[in-house]
Amino acid sequence: MSDTLPMTIIAGYLGAGKTTLINQILRNANGQRLAVLVNEFGALPIDADLIEAQDEDLIALAGGCVCCSYGDDLMLALSKMRTLDPKPDHVLLETSGVALPDKIAASVGLFGKDIQVLGVVVLADAEGLPAQLQDNYLADTITRQLGAADLVVLTKTDLATQDQLNASRFSIGRHARGATLVENSSDILHHVLSPDISQRSPAVFDAGPHHIELTSRTFTPPGPVDAHALAQSLADTDAVVRAKGHLMNEPDGALVTLQLVGKRFTLTQADPALKPGIVIIEKKNNTASTAA
Amino acid sequence: MIKILSARKILTMNPQKPHATHVAIRDGLILGAGSLEELKGWGDYELDTQFADKVLMPGLVEGHCHLQEGALWSHTYVGFFDRMSPEGDMQAGCKNLDAVLSKLAAAEAKLDDPDAPLPAWSLDPIYFDNQRVDRAQLDTISTTRPIGIMHASGHIMNVNSKALELAGLMKPGINHEGVPLGPDGLPSGELKGPDVMSPVSIHVGFDRDMLACDEQGMWRFGKLCVRAGVTTATDLAARLPEDAVKLMHKVTDNTAYPARIVPLRFHHGVSPEDLIKHVEALAPQSTEKLRLGRIKIVVDGSIQGFSARLRAPGYYNGAPNGLWYIAPEQLAYILETSLAKGIQVHCHTNGDEATQLVIDTMRKALRKTPSTDHRFTLQHCQLADTAQFRQIKELGLCVNLFANHHHYWGDQHYDLTVGPERAERMNAAGTAAREGVPFGIHSDAPITPLGPLFTGWCAMNRKTASGRTLGEAEKITLDQALYAITLGAAYTLHMDGEVGSIEAGKRADFAVLEDDPEEMGTERLKDTRVWGTVLGGKPFAAADV
């Protein structure tokens, strides 16, 4: 599967910090060859000394990273991306502020094995989010963006009031069910850019919430289980799209947190005070596997 | 040298002198219209009687179309309605699927290279009881060459297996709402929406930039203008890179080119700041026949594609609300900055929520940057209600309504997208007139054929393709229709001081007609025969282009 280009979609409304994040990522590429796709270069200030070459749609950066603008034709830019030589290790796609990332992920899915969406990261500005969700013109767009997130990054937490922070967290919990929430930037980099994202076997991202009926159920094993084996079996089940929660791990019943997106999962130590139990989201009938 | 043209009748659109028999011209400008006696005083003249039995109108102005119409004629036309090619060959409409397939087969037979793509356009299965075209049917035409048919709406394409193969889509397991699958689990060949069309369209012979136009296409577009009596036409959504502008200059600078072209730079793919800079750089490059320096913003999608932004009660069939194509803050930036710099902006708003967003944003922008006479224009503005037209009036906005759309797809809106009540009020030219909103009406060619006299007929009769009269109260009169396709559209482009009526000092741009629109009247305006045009005093006969 080395031909597969791993991609992370970075979405969120204007001012949520997408460009800041992209710049941060480029500065911390650590030898990874990143390809960054942006709507247009206008908003992406790149230090001149980093730029090795530039034409209308592509900027080559020192260290092997490239940055491309896709304007109004994302699909064409992605076609080109597949032919880049050398191949990038990881593609980061920054969407426009009003784009719906699930729709974009579905379109990227047309490239099949060539490009695999590893996840959707949606940035939300803690200072602006509550007002955006009150704005009749924007609320449904923001809600749909959050609903498509695998990972929500709450930004500008230092600028927001406590009320804004609380309201933002509440809204994210409500609209981005099943997504992980992180609130500080070093976490973001870890999540978005962890090298194993691009080197592991490809995860399956299912763009399906709007196209395939999903159901969710909770599952609480009566006692300690082999958490890794359980997670692996969920990951191996095509119907399972997401799973999240806490498990008592064998042999000693230590509580671990399970995060699963498609075929990819992580188990981390959990606060022992939390209640065990996981939520599993799965396709209603297992006919439309996109495992390709 | 002064030339005086005589005509059977001249409809000047100048209320001070609505009718005349002669018009005097010097250096491409009108000296005056009236009787020969009234015009003689200008000095020595040559009397030109070639139009003595014709009717002259101001050259018609199409305020919303695309040069792409010219480029598409290199491809096979498979539309339902008869349509005149730029060369004047009336192509019979394909009345059923077999007719589509046999026209494709005939086009295929003319191609020597077995790998050459076969692009076709203007398919509309609505008129075949929504019978779908599938991959297998197109495979009977060819399995070796990619075939693609663009639908009339521009939102859907049908392709054969080879085309899917070349685009890497001929495989099972595709999960995308724009790619319906057949019983075998493979794509059926129907592709819905730009995201899924774009990777395939390049393989079937459509340009990557669907709205771009090449040199031959521009010339063909010019021929269509002559046949339709049009002398000023917009290219409403152009990227305008340097080479495209160079080409437009080259073509329009040619004295044999019969139209004034008004391209608007559209907002996609460039930051709002760069958009403004680009348009400011373009403006001084304008010439008499190429008018640069305007902006087009696309605010939402299309109603039949369910991507337009609607206010409550939303789509009739319960479809979720559509998409924004620009963030409200960016819209505000462009409107405010353009007001401050005197750049004109046209906004595509199909749904009434998109219209309301522009209204609200304009209100704030005008408070910050008070401006009179900005004439920012809402393009399509198909669903606006009366209260919105009042606000539009208050803010000094103009509208350009999609009268042709109402004819071709009104039934679909009635049955499916917005339901009976709102379908009746769509493209409310009657309300625009009553509320005093300056308005034009348009074809959006190539979506529907270029032809303002037909567009006027649509707005006066509001008859849908099935024959239903949709929105009696929104009909306009003959006078209003003729105004909309001349001065009305010219006003939305800030060109009404220059074109749109036949009076002293304006450009000698005329539509030359065999029939008198005033005699043809409401019922028959669409059947008015066009001899050709005059642009800056130079005649262009449809028969010769």
Protein architecture, described:
The complex is a heterodimer of chains A (about 290) and B (about 550). With about 290 residues, chain A is of the alpha/beta class. Chain A contains 9 helices and 14 strands. Chain A has 2 domains: about 5-200, 3-Layer(aba) Sandwich (Rossmann fold), CATH 3.40.50; about 210-285, CobW-like, C-terminal domain (Hypothetical Protein Yjia, Chain: A,domain 2), CATH 3.30.1220.10. In chain A, the strands form 2 sheets. A 9-stranded mixed beta sheet of chain A has the order 3-4-5-2-6-1-7-8-9, sandwiched between helices. Chain A has a 5-stranded antiparallel beta sheet with strand order 10-14-11-12-13, covered by helices on one side. The radius of gyration of chain A is 19 Å and the shape is globular. Chain B is α/β, with parallel strands linked by helices. In chain B, helix 13 (about 405-415) runs antiparallel to helix 14 (about 420-425). In chain B, about 55% of the residues are buried. The interface between A and B is large, with 45 and 34 residues.
